Amino acid sequence: MIILTKKMKRPLLLLCVGVVLLLVSVEFAGLFSTFEPETVHKSGSCVVFALGNPSEDDGGLSPVQQSRVELAVKAYRARQCQSMVFSGGAVANKYVEAEAMAGFAHQLGVPEQAIVIEGQSRNTWENIGCSLPYLQNYGSILIASEILHATRAKRYLCRQQPSLCEAVEPMGSVLPWYFVWRNVRAVVHEISAWIRDILLYEGGTKHNSPSCPSLPSHWATVNQHAKITREWGESTFEKFSLSQR
Length: 245
What we know:
By secondary structure, the chain is α/β, with parallel strands linked by helices. The protein has 8 helices and 5 strands. It is globular and about 60 Å long.
């Protein structure tokens, strides 16, 4: 057991405060950043990968979901991408995160045939694992979330399939200024996730296998999985259209 003296506690406290302030600064930089297609343009095909967030308890779109979808749609149009993948299951309540976000994207004008809904994942690691079959063979993979979360998702994707790492571009969505407290909590969560990953998982390759509750045992069966996803999407668009009337 390590006993901290007063002389040891002060530098440790200052270090922790410094790390928190640094990450908060990064988060706020992401909040006020904008997606500029001229500065990030790359030739070739692309897919936009939007990470899920819980819907409101009544099934309505949350502000975080809305900001991520708006960023994803902006990138999709600016880069003329071929596909959009929405990932996230029913974690905090009975509503599937990816379905709500896909419905909003469709309302913003994204065609149904361009949208893939992955509605089984329960966390960021599974977001990647469940969506990997839909991220193959693209020149760029644009991850839409808050900037620290999108960066962590990139780390996870690089661990699960290193061959895709160079194609990944994290993008930070913008939330209104009155969500400051939500973003402070998000920074704390990202700090804890970063420390956890370093201490437990990133020291080797043992924990790098993709994980998904319903991922096919072999990607040869991915066409069947994609068919289910498309059917899911059709019912989602119908429900979303009805809810807007």
